[in-house]
Design goal:
single chain, 43 residues, mainly beta, three-stranded antiparallel sheet, 0% helix, 19% strand, binds zinc ion
Length: 43
């Protein structure tokens, strides 16, 4: 319940795109998707 404390370094429970580095991956049912470079990571 203390996730707000992690906003300091820009990281939340969201994952960042390994290609873009500064873009968060969209969280879908079975995968994470970067809308900028189309990188997809299956869970
Ligand atoms: Zn990306």
């Amino acid at each position: 319940m203390a996730r707000h404390e992690y906003y300091d370094d820009g990281s939340t429970d969201k994952q960042q795109c390994p290609r873009c580095g500064d873009t968060f991956l969209g969280d879908y049912d079975d995968r994470l998707h970067c809308g900028q470079c189309s990188y997809t990571e299956f869970k």
